[in-house]
Structure formats: C-alpha cells, structure tokens
Predict the 3D structure of the following.
Amino acid sequence: MQKVLLIEIHSLAADHGCFASNRYFSEFLEIHPRTVSAHLSSLKSKGFISMTIHNHNRRVISIQRKAGLSPSSRRKINRK
C-alpha cells in the first residue's frame, strides 16, 4: 500500500509538491485516514518523503528519492 501511496504522491507533486489531504488519499486508496497517516509517517521516517506546513494549515508532501527505486528501497517500502 505504501508503494501505491508514494506513486500517487509522485503523480500529484509536479514542481511544487503534493497538496492532497489524508481524506483524498483515503478515498483514493479505500483505507481509513488514520491508516494514510501511518503510511505517510512510515514513508517519512524511511526518507522517501518530506512534509512541510505552509501558511499554518497547508501541508506539502515532497518526494525525496526518484521514482525508480532500488531493490533495497523497495524492500523498505514493502516492510510494514
């Protein structure tokens, strides 16, 4: 599931990062918003994404690594 989430973030990120909400991701992936939050935290702790807050309420998610992930990176994503 994390791999699909990472791909969706990458597809939405463009040049300025991804502004999608946990609600959007939960509807897209058909999972609970808390599960989305847990997956985002995991991807962040593994170094795949960064999250910043703009204007006190707007989260921006940025990809930290290229979409062409190495086999060892894929193993990190698949662990959970």
Q: What stands out?
A: Residues 2-78 form a domain with the Arc Repressor Mutant, subunit A fold (CATH 1.10.10.10). The beta strands are 49-54, 58-63. The two ends are 9 Å apart (CA to CA). The chain is about 50% helix and 15% strand.
